[in-house]
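Justification of resources, computational component.

The compute hours requested in this renewal are based largely on the per-chain cost of generating structure records like the one below. Each record pairs the submitted sequence with a full C-alpha cell output. That output is archived, and it is also reused by downstream analysis tasks.
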Amino acid sequence: MTNSSNWQPSSPSVIAAIMVTCHKFPKRPAFVYRVAKQEFTVDYAKLREDVILLARAFEERKVGRGSRVMLLSDNRYAWIVTDLALMALGAVSVPRGSETPTQELEFILNHARCSFMVVETDALLARHQEMLSTHKEVKTLFIIEGTDKHTLFNRLYAYNDILKDRTLSDGDFKRFDHMVAAVTQKDLVTIIFTSVTTGKPKGVMLNHRNILFNTETLPPVIGITEKDLWVSILPSWHIFERALELLALTSGSSIVYSNLKTFSNDLVAYQPTLVATVPRLWESLYTKVTAAVMEKGGRAFAIFNLLVKISIRFRRARRQFLGHLPQFTRAGLPTRCVRKLIALFEMMLLAVPYWLAQKKLAPLKAKFGGRLRMAVSGGGTLPAYLENWLDAIGIRITNAYGMTECAPAIAGRGYNSNIFGTLGRPIDVTELRIVDSEDQPVAPGVEGDIEVRGPQVFDGYDDNDEENRKAFTADGFFRTGDLGKMTISGELVLTGRSKEIIVLASGENIDPSRIEGAIGQLPFVNDAVLVGQDRKGLAALIVPDWDKLKDFMTERFGHTIENAEDLHKDSALRDRVKQEINRLLQAKNGFKPYEKLQKIDFLKHEFTVGEELTNTFKKRRYIIERKYKELIDRLFK
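The structure output for this chain reads:
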C-alpha cells in the first residue's frame, strides 16, 4: 500500500484532467438540462468552448490567478462552466446556494475576502442588494441570468453582456491551454464554508491535489466509465455533489440536472446507471412508497411489508453464509460452521418466498429506470432500516462517508467491499484510525473517535488558527468529530457524532441520530429532533405529516384531532403517541432503557433549508434548540 504522503496524482490539476476528457470524448454528451421545459444537451467539445469563452470574459474584467470569487447560485449548467473557468484562471471559487441568508452571506464575503461575485439571477441580487451596496471589497458583480447591466458608472455585468462575442480564434485556444498548464496540484481551487450545524461556518480550503485524489481513486470503487449516466439532484456547490460531477467529467460520463419536482420522472425517462443523494431524500422516497401502499388498504400494506421482510431475511441469511456481515470479534471454526449451517437452512426455507417477493417488488425497482446499478448515499448517516429496505427491493446502495474537509471521500462500500451494514474500507491510501480520549488506537469493535490522514485531507481552515489547532493531531491526523468502530476485516461503521452527543444529567452519552432514525419509521413523522442535554431524560420535537397523524389517531385510538392545538392541550393524547414511539426504542431493537422518550411535542411548521436545515438537509441543532427554547424548557418542567 502506497504511503499517503507519497501519493501523487497522474494529472497536474482538475481542470487539466477535464480538458483531457474533452479532447478524448468531444461528441459525448456531458450535460443534459432544461430551461423553460426545453431540453438541451451539451457535448464535451461544447463544454470546453463555453469554459474558454467565460474564462476569456472573466480575464478581460481582471479576474485572475488568486482572485477570490463568490459564486452564489443553485444547480445549472452555467454553474459548472463558471467553476471550470475560474479553475483555468487559477482563481478561487467561494460557492454557496441561493437560500443563503444575507447575514451568513455577509460573514462569508468578509471572511473569504472576495473581490468578485457571481450571482444567479436579478431577483437573488435584489435580495442582498442592501448589504452589497455597503460592501466595498466586492469590486465587480456578474449575473448569470439577466439582461445587460453594464454602464460606464458601474461594474455590474450580465453573462449575456460579456458573452456576446462567441467567436474563438486559434490564439484563444492556445492562451487557454497555456493558462491551464500553469495550474498546479498545490493551487487552491475553492473555499467551501461548512454548513452551519453547530456555529459559525468555517472556510475549508481545498486544492487540486485534494480533489484529484477523489477523481482518481473513486472510479474503481463505483466502477464509473464513460458509458455511465448520472441523474443529479444535490446542490452543485456542496462538496459531495461537486466531487461527483468532477468525477463524472474526468471519466467522460454524462450528467442530467434534475430537481425535487422532476426527480421521480427523470429516473424513468433518462434511465440512469448511477444516482447520488443524501439520506433525507431516501427517507422521502420510503415515505412516499409506504404511503402509496397504505392507500390501497391494510391488507395490501401488510402483504407489502411481508414481502420486504422476507427479502431482508433471505438476503441477511445469504450474507451470513457468505461471510458478508460485519464481525467485530473473531469466532472459532465450530461457531462459524454452525452459523453457516443455520443460514443455509434459512435460505432453503425462504428460497421460494424470496423469489416471489422479488417478482412482486420488481415494479418498484423499475421506478428507478431499469438500468440503475448503484445508488450512492452520502452527506449523512443512512439509517439501518432504510439501508435494509433499499437492499430488499433490489437497489445496490453504496453507503459513503466523507467530509468537506476531505474533498470529501474517506470510505465507501462500493465494489471494493461486500460487508453489508458498514461504510466499507477507507479509500485507497487513506490512513484511518479509531482512537480513545487519549488519542490511542483502540481494538476492532471498540467505539472511538475517527481520525484520518491522506492526500484528500485539506491543509486547514481559511484564516482560522484556533480551529486549525483543534482540527489536527500532533502527527497530522484530522479529527473528524465522528464516532465509529472497525470490523476485524477493516471496514468502518459509523456510530455517531461526538459533537452532537447528548449527555444526560446522569452521565449517559446518547447519539440522537439513531433514535431520530427510528422515530422516522412512523408514517406520520416527517422529522424529529431529540433534546435532553444535561436533563434527566430525553424528549423529542416532532414535525408531523398532519393528515397522516390524524389518520393514525383515528385508526389507533379512535380519537379525532382537528389541529395542532388539540395535541398541545391534551398531554394524555401526546403520551399515547409517545408510547407508540417508545415501542420502537426497545432493547430488542438495540436501544437502552434511558434512550426512551419521557416527553414529546409537535411542531406546527416544517423545517426549511437555510434555517433549520443545511443544503443537504442536515439538522442545524443549535438553531432548532434556540428557536424552540421555551417549548423545550416546558417539556422538562
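The first strand starts at residue 29 and ends at 35. The chain has a mean pLDDT of 90.
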